[in-house]
Design goal:
By secondary structure, the chain is an alpha/beta fold. It has 22 helices and 15 strands. Helix 7 packs across helix 20. The longest helix is centred in the C-terminal third of the chain and has 25 residues. It binds one RNA strand through helix 3, helix 8, helix 14, helix 19 and helix 20.
Amino acid sequence: MRAFVFKLVTATLEQLVQEGTLPDEVLPLLLRGGLDFKVERPREKSHGDFSTNAALVLARMARMKPRDLAQKILDALPLEQDGETRCEIAGPGFINFYLSPARLRQLIPEILSQRDTYGHSRLGEGKRVLVEFVSANPTGPMHVGHGRGAVTGDAIARLLSAVGFHVEREYYINDAGNQVDVLGRSVLYRYREIRGLPAVKPPSYYPGEYVTEIAAALNNQDQDLWLTASEPFGQPLDENTLPTPPKEVVDFTIARVIEDIRKDLEILGIQFDHWFSERTLHQEGGIDRVLAHLVEKNLIYQGVLERPKGGDVDSSDETDLRLQTLFRATEFGDDADRSLKKADGSYTYFAADIAYHFDKAKRGYDLLVDVWGADHGGYVKRVQAALEAMTGRKDLLDVVLTQMVNLTQGGKQVRMSKRAGTFVTLREVLEETGADAVRFWFLTRSSGAGLDFDLDLAKAKTNDNPVFYVQYAHARVYSLFAKLKERSLSEGEGDLSRLVAPEELDLIRLLGVFPEVVESAALSREPHRLTYYLLELAAVFHGYYNNYRILDEDPELRGARLSLIRAAGQVIANGLTLMGVSAPVSM
RNA sequence: GCGUUUGUAGCUCAACGGAUAGAGCACCGGCCUUCUAAGCCGUAGGUUGCAGGUUCGAGUCCUGCCAGGCGCGCCA
């Protein structure tokens, strides 16, 4: 609907250029979209259904007072003032559009015929987007923070898909590097323990219970096979000469952990199109090629990095004065050049990450979206820098950062400590509250802000619980239709013109906003906008329900109201679906 | 020290550069007991951390401060 008004205004401005009211230079700007005039929903209800600032933006170029120009625009608008739509000038020069009740009511059959596609659009023109998210290291179970990333990424993918992008979901598995060796050693150490052999904790290891479980499974499957390999763990190990665990043990362990993660994601209802292994990059020489490419562009040199000042970096450490292989990230807006190779000649994580993102770019996507934990925020610039260096494209990668989640119960914080091994896994929370609560709740804040997750409230069947509040609005619609049957009432010959109450027209207006909410949430990568919209819609719906009798005696009125709430139920269901939350028919 | 992010009502948070900055909870006052869930109406609550700047117009953009989070290594 907004697009319609926008086109109307644009056409009118073109006409004013031809008439000479507006200078010729406006025309090219208009065609290129170079003018930032807007058609928007006013916050203030009395300002109409739509409003445009066109006269304010163009006043200077037209050398006219904003209100005078507004009058010219108004006169030229090809709108018949036939009672469908009404316009007026207000404030400093806004032009406000008021839709008539008749026009508003048309929306109900539109929604009912579009059903689950209402709110969708073709804005994305089928452009290909790759959303990479979760990508939790395969070294242990997912915790709550990973869950937030998972839910956010999936919601963004759903939103982009709804507005017409071709979306694929990808999980990047960090199955190379030091950490997987640490993991393999942790398993071998526990393997010895299980077999009752002498075992000493390696200098660094993963303490969680899951490691022991995996070791037990390994023992079950392979029995004595790893006795020799585990021998070094019978005595204290020197940090500098740690044994490399056998590939089979590492693979077995990673496969187990990934399977566990996959299960969490399945409970959440998230499916990936691609699982991309970091290891394949190393094996197929992808990293070498990327480095060669950068050498060709003269973006690599041997140098020394300055030591960071202050903070808790140990300034007595001399290792950073060593000559290393550096990428000229500063030429692309980063704050420092970045290391690509370690002293032992192996690649840094960053080198692999460049190769990975370059691989994504080569696969031909028009847009890459990454969802990362906020603790990785410092890497955004360098990855974008590298991507620009490799592809020449500046805005290819969009990174969304998600902040921490705090679990609370009974108003008190649930402490999570990885060191003490008492951290709460995502699985535990899912079992406690269910996937709907987790998904909805994780989308109630903008992703950049911290989030408190109240375990008690998320389970509560009260209106304080936002998940319940919205889902219940949906269920209420269905319960009314059930009641209708129970009383053997007909749905009635709905006469929509009987919908005259301000609450009814407000509800319709709100239903009309839905497509715009979906669009803005998708384009800004801010799924929480959808959540807020649904909360508002649920509130308006509940208010209507509480103040008006839907199942009225009069069949014409009853039918009209039933159509309205059916449309409302449809919009709530569509919104919940975009969040990945179920829309229950009864509760 | 540098980067990044956040700072909005007592609390938790919204607000695509728009008009008088909004919800929920809590508080206070008043109704109500319904098509299933304590609902409904109303009052009050603000110098949007501070100071400048950009413009028709700034919570939003720019600069500088203040405060919290995260990050700043050849860890991933």
